[in-house]
Amino acid sequence: MKKIKYLALIVGCLLSGQSFADDSEALQQQLATIKSFKAQFSQQVTDSQGEAIMQGEGNIALQQPMMIRWQQQSPDDTLFVSNGDKTYYFDSFAEQVTIMNTHSLIDSTPFVLLTSKDPEQWAKYQVVATDAGFSVTPNKGVESQVEKLDIRFNAKEQGLASLTVLDTSGQQSLFTFKDAKVNEALAAQTFEFTIPEGVEVDDQSQGD
User: Is 181 among the domain residues?
Assistant: First the structure.
């Protein structure tokens, strides 16, 4: 379940509420220029002491609104796919598929904000502009496995350069993107998932 929330801090008190609002609007405007995004990524994970504990790689595809495909190829083979309505998380080793309501995931991870324009959902997070990009943190009362999401954009061309995720255990994951394709047409099946025969299905989307 922790992996699912991924694929989801106190900021400077001297900044005013209007400043937070302006930074949030600036981030939303920059994300709005990315209609679609596809890239390979490398992942570096460190523990709360800063010690390296894992490296991985995979690929990502994003498309507005609310469509995500995040495939981890190593060290584990997992797939996170959202078609905007439902989200599927497939763990090939465990032979299990978890189905979730996409909109409910925003409460647990800010990742979904990358393709969302819903002001109600954005209001649940504070955004602060940094020297490198933007820092996103959940407001008090929002239950999230992610304490902070740092977003960096590619300075030379449109698109994301990296995402850094700090979770509630103090573990940090840095995702660095390469071979990016921005605003190119993506096949509709990119964001669809067919449940393989014989796997266990945990449908958590009912009643959300």
Answer: yes
